[in-house]
Amino acid sequence: MVEERVPLTVHGMSVSGNCHKVRLLLEQLGSRYRWMEVDSAHGQTHTPEFLALNPNAKVPLIVRDDGRVLTESNAILFWLAEGTPYLPSDGWERAQALSWMFFEQYTHEPCVAVARFIRGWTPADSPRRAELPRLHERAATALAVMEQHLREAQWFTGSGYGIADIALFAYTDVAGEGGISLQPFPEVRGWLQRVREQPRFLPMPAVTAEVRSRFEAA
Q1: Which segments of the protein form a coiled coil according to its record (predicted)?
Q2: Residues with pLDDT less than 70, the chain
């Protein structure tokens, strides 16, 4: 029996927000793909085979059936969404979507995602715990920016749901795991619910004790 060729292979870690972004969009697009789980806690992104795909030693990355490789979560989202309703066709709206995706990577993710990692995967006596108060302050500032936008708009991708929303959703939805309260941000909470109600929505897997223990032992 000849094995069916799959157009895309995705290398990722299921409990990573950056990886889940890609998986969520693929599911909502109804795309065929193969998911390859990567245990970054135990060096799987530093093997010669992985480094040949991405010398930067990070997930997610996708490999097309023609061998071409694309890295960086938001670049992958942009490529996957091209020509679909998840990326506006209007140039100004596309630029606005990209603006929010840069915001996510440079302002939002470095505090919200890092707080989640420190609180969820480092020992209680880790020196990194001292970073949490400052990360929580920065996260509140980022969330306030989102809150202000959402007072006048339903989405971050333009007039409809799309890749900027997916990019911002992944780590915002699990902000509580980093000790970040969403209670002061009712518009953000309403937007999160609207994202969850989208067709073919896929939640990020819960972080189990086994996953945490693997990181602590690494």
Answers
A1: none
A2: 1-4, 208-218
Kindly compute the dihedral angle of the four CA atoms of residues 136, 142, 144, 150, in this order, to the nearest 10 degrees.
Answer: -140
Statement: the pTM of the whole predicted model exceeds 0.70 = yes
Q: Which of 192, 197, 163 is nearest to 180 (CA)?
A: 192
Query: CA 109 to CA 182: how far, in whole Å?
Result: 15
Q: Are strands 33-37 and 61-64 parallel, antiparallel or unpaired?
A: unpaired
d(CA 12, CA 16): 8
Structure tokens at 56: 């930067």
Alpha-carbon distance 192 to 207, whole Å?
19
Please state, as a whole number, how many other Cβ atoms lie within 10 Å of the Cβ of residue 57: 14
Task: Return the SS3 of 201.
Answer: coil
Give the tens place of pLDDT for each residue, 42-88. 789 999 999 999 999 999 999 999 999 999 999 999 999 999 999 99
